[in-house]
């Protein structure tokens, strides 16, 4: 599966105006997706995810202009204030919503498309063994649940969902849902690979538990057959 995410660099115009438009776009994306948000002012003053993203955009601009140490210093300052660490070299599209945000880590070579949603404790990390591109690439509209870990240089397709607590180590197709440790696909293109659930951050299946339950059923059936032969 190949995903080509290109986060466009701003062209021309006043940098202050571009910055203000980016801030307004980020604020509006939060207001649209968070039912607890009562307005732009509340988001600007009180949302740590927004604060971390604003610091990131400033640090990313510095990093792209060669001020790498200053950019890293700013990102570490943002981490101290918000509990969210975003490497300034990461590429993030418009409208990222980091809900609550505590413990979120976005690695250096991560690429994130437009209008994605992250919950607290999400990690876009590497495995510690690679060089070069070593962090995930996410398409547009991806939702990553609380505590999920995405480790390695793989692709997550548009509108995919990663369940809370999942550990993802390989590609996730577009319009699919990944659950478990390691993560498995349980829904693809609107069709349930496993029945009886719909992802809502809480009511998600445990693929391993399901397999164990099936083994138990088969053992019970075999025991019943053996008991019948003994009689």
In short:
The protein is α/β, with parallel strands linked by helices. Helices cover 35% and strands 17% of the residues. It is elongated, with a radius of gyration of 21 Å.
Can you describe this structure?
This protein is of the alpha/beta class and 231 residues long. The protein has one domain (15-202): Hexapeptide repeat proteins (UDP N-Acetylglucosamine Acyltransferase, domain 1), CATH 2.160.10. Helices cover 35% and strands 17% of the residues. It has helices spanning 15-33, 40-46, 48-64, 68-82, 207-230; strands at 85-86, 91-92, 97-98, 105-106, 111-112, 117-118, 123-125, 137-138, 143-144, 149-151, 155-156, 161-162, 167-168, 176-179, 184-188, 191-192. Strands 3-6-9-12-14-15-16 form a seven-stranded mixed sheet. The protein has a five-stranded parallel sheet with strand order 1-4-7-10-13. Helix 3 packs antiparallel against helix 4 (68-82). The longest helix is centred in the C-terminal third of the chain and has 24 residues, at 207-230. It is elongated and about 80 Å long. It starts with 14 loop residues before the first helix and ends with a helix. Residues 195-199 have low confidence and may be disordered.
